[in-house]
């Protein structure tokens, strides 16, 4: 098969994997090598839902031995199949990099023959890049669940980041929709990567010695192929961050590609708005010191898709507001819609030198349009605001924004709206 045809098939097959990011690693280049993972050497480019588009993104092969119900590359699908050679992937990476098309490589693979054989092919590819071609640019590679631990470790010393996709939010769904996969095999490489990285911290630093997965590990979950609630998904992510020190959990709205009685119909639109809310909740976990139990409760386990999770939490806990920005702690400020880590830091610094007023807040980076319902300053609150949670919701969501969100919401409103329904919202907007 011609190389151009392989690229067409395998680049297309790789598009359903969103678990890639080129941040979080520093690796100084040396004379006689090619590529850089320094911040100044990589131009990050992300789509609005978090996908990194700056890497050459390929599957090594789509000739899979597994028959996962949700996967386009399942062995029972009649689709074109192709497999690269290690040399072809290495040559492609160098060609694209030297033309300044990419900053690095994101390499995944279906399972060909068996996990060990697949992992060995990936190792050969990375060895050609690192040892023969002197490539020191960013490489993100998939750890192959079920492969021997020694192979996983060898692969980790050649890559900057590794990811082990849990695929589905729960082990029960994985057993049902991916019967060939052992849930234990999925989590085993995660544990190994975490253990080896911790062991490295206690080893003496040797100059030019390879680091083991210096940019850490990540994972991906497919959203909408199985019936888990938003709360259960966020809870799983929280546990993964705590247990395995993951850098990122990526969420991929399920795109129906197979006709299957266990899956949504192929005419179902991907739940992109739900995916977006999961990313926002994930941000709250990592940077705003929220817990899953604060973001979503057992009584209300799904997102209000028409309001971001932070604002939704604030409205549901309105008894905690207003927060006085002159006296509130940094953690309290982080809970205010319209105030992020940077603007919270600005407030804490500025109030050391002078007494803040409401007119100062916009200069400190606060989004007043959102924060005004939840703040005070020296016991002074913005004039003319109605302190009613239902009214605040309708004020936070403009009519234009609501129509856009409604268009992108592929789930029933009865599942997702926790504080108000569509009819009440539209009635409030018409007043």
Task: Write structural notes for this entry.
The chain is of the alpha/beta class. The protein folds into two domains: 3-286, Aldolase class I (TIM Barrel, Alpha-Beta Barrel); 309-430, no CATH class. Helix content is 39%, strand content 8%. It is built from 17 helices and eight strands. It has helices spanning 3-13, 86-98, 115-132, 149-156, 171-177, 183-201, 230-244, 272-287, 292-295, 309-316, 330-334, 341-350, 368-371, 389-396, 399-408, 413-416, 422-430, and strands at 55-59, 104-108, 138-142, 161-163, 217-223, 248-253, 323-324, 375-376. The strands form two sheets. Strands 1-2-3-4-5-6 form a six-stranded parallel β-sheet. It has a two-stranded parallel sheet with strand order 7-8. Helix 2 crosses helix 3, helix 4 (149-156) packs across helix 6 and helix 7 runs parallel beside helix 8. Mean pLDDT is 84; it is low at 36-45 and 412-431.
């Amino acid at each position: 098969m011609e190389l151009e045809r392989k690229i067409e098939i395998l680049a297309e097959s790789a598009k359903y994997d969103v678990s890639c990011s080129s941040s979080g690693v520093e690796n100084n280049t040396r004379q006689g090598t090619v590529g850089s993972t320094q911040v100044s050497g990589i131009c990050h480019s992300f789509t609005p839902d978090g996908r990194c588009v700056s890497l050459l993104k390929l599957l090594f092969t789509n000739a899979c031995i597994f028959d996962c119900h949700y996967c386009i590359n399942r062995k029972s699908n009649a689709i074109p199949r192709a497999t690269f050679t290690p040399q072809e992937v290495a040559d492609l990476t160098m060609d694209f990099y030297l033309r300044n098309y990419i900053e690095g490589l994101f390499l995944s693979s279906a399972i060909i023959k068996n996990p060990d054989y697949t992992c060995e092919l990936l190792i050969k590819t990375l060895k050609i890049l690192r040892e023969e071609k002197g490539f020191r640019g960013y490489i993100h590679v998939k750890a192959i669940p079920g492969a021997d631990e020694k192979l996983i470790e060898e692969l980790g010393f050649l890559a900057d980041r590794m990811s082990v996709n849990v695929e589905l939010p729960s082990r029960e769904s994985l057993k049902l929709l991916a019967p060939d996969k052992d849930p234990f095999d999925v989590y085993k490489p995660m544990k190994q990567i975490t253990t080896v990285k911790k062991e490295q911290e206690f080893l003496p630093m040797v100059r030019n010695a390879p680091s083991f997965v210096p940019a850490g590990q990540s994972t991906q979950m497919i959203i909408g192929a199985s019936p888990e609630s938003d709360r259960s998904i966020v809870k799983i992510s929280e546990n993964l961050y705590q247990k395995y020190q993951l850098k990122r959990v990526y969420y991929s709205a399920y795109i129906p590609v197979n006709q299957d009685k266990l899956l949504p119909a192929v005419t179902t639109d991907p739940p992109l708005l739900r995916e977006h809310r999961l990313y926002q909740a994930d941000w709250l976990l990592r940077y705003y010191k929220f817990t899953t139990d604060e973001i979503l409760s057992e009584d209300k386990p799904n997102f209000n898709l028409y309001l971001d999770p932070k604002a939704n939490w604030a409205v549901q806990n309105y008894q905690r507001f207003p927060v006085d920005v002159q006296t509130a702690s940094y953690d309290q400020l982080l809970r205010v819609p319209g105030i992020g880590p940077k603007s919270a830091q600005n407030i804490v610094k500025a109030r050391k030198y002078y007494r803040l007023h409401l007119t100062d807040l916009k200069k400190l980076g606060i989004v007043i349009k959102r924060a005004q319902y939840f703040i005070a300053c020296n016991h002074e609150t913005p004039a003319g605001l109605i302190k009613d949670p239902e009214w605040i919701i309708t004020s936070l969501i403009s009519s234009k924004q609501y129509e856009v969100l409604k268009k992108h919401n592929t789930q029933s409103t009865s599942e997702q709206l926790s504080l108000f329904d569509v009819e009440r919202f539209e009635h409030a907007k018409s007043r």
